Amino acid sequence: MALSTRTTKRLIRTFLLGQASVTSLVDDRIFGSHLQDSDAETTEFPLVVFALLSGHAAWDTAVQAQSVEIYAFSKRSADEASKIYDAVFGAIQHERLSVEGISVKALISEVQRPVDGYNSNVRAWFSRGRWKYSSSE
């Protein structure tokens, strides 16, 4: 499996889905892209969103490094959003991401502590941190 944006999203999401400390709070509501405004009314909260930012790949694409923002959203409270973010942090901080059936392996580490806020488009509180994701095949 080649290193691709799709593979990166699949690895992060599948790894997080295997972490009971996270899924006990958000079930399977872990998304590799932001919700559209129209989704906010029909999507169940709380949830986790991760967004891939800039990065680079080696000339042969066997190694990649990317910045990732991870958001924890809650319609209940900012405290719940922080609790979810803390669960994600505990599950993946400086962890080697490895999932059976996905040949890509990665290391992920937080590089910017979370900021809290309120997203008026989805009407939910969030806690967002920035991460460094390094992968190889």
How does the overall form come out from the CA principal axes? globular
Extract low-pLDDT stretches: none
User: What does the largest sheet look like?
Assistant: 6 strands, mixed
**Secondary-structure element series:** HHEEEHEEE
Q: How many distinct beta strands?
A: 6
Which class best fits the helix and strand makeup?
Answer: alpha+beta
Q: Gyration radius, to the nearest Å? A: 15 Å
Instruction: State the end-to-end distance.
Output: 8 Å
Number of helices: 3
Which strand order does the major sheet show? 1-2-3-6-5-4
The pLDDT mean sits at 91
Percent in strands? 35-45%
**Approximately how much helix is present in the residues?**
25-40%
What does this structure look like?
The chain is an alpha+beta fold and 137 residues long. Helices cover 26% and strands 41% of the residues. The protein contains 3 helices and 6 strands; from the N terminus they run H-H-E-E-E-H-E-E-E. It has helices at 5-17, 20-26, 78-92, and strands spanning 30-31, 47-57, 63-74, 95-97, 105-119, 124-136. The protein has a 6-stranded mixed β-sheet. The chain is globular.
